[in-house]
Amino acid sequence: MRTKPYKDIRKARCTRCKAPAVAEWETCALGNRRVALCGICDAQLNRVALRFVIGAERANKFCDRYERRKWS
Ligand SMILES: [Zn+2]
């Protein structure tokens, strides 16, 4: 994990599953370190976080749309 943004996230590996990364998460609880994520883990993290913040029903609508756009 790093504190500065990745110059090319595609060269990193997902912190969770080691697949090629496509996104990074700036993690407040880790001193704003950057966690590289693959597309699947990024989508899952967004779904978990949004369900917590705005509830499952609304979160699912946003996340379904996000995942459709992401994979098409
Ligand atoms: Zn992953």
Widest beta sheet: strand line-up: 1-2
**Beta-strand proportion:** 5-15%
Assign an overall shape.
globular
**CA distance, first residue to last residue:** 29 Å
Number of helices: 2
Number of domains: 1
List the helices and strands in order: EEHH
Helix share of residues? 40-55%
Radius of gyration: 13 Å
DSSP E strands, number: 2
> Largest sheet at a glance?
2 strands, antiparallel
Arithmetic mean pLDDT: 93
Low-confidence stretches: none
| Class from helix and strand fractions | alpha+beta
Q: What small ligands are held by the chains?
A: zinc ion
Give a description of the structure.
- By secondary structure, the protein is an alpha+beta fold.
- The chain has one domain (9-71).
- 44% of the residues lie in helices and 14% in strands.
- It is built from two helices and two strands; from the N terminus they run ββαα.
- Strands 1-2 form a two-stranded antiparallel sheet.
- The longest helix has 16 residues, at 39-54.
- It is globular and about 35 Å long.
- The relative contact order is 0.16.
- The structure holds zinc ion.
- Residues 14, 16-17, 19, 37-38, 40-41 line the site of zinc ion.
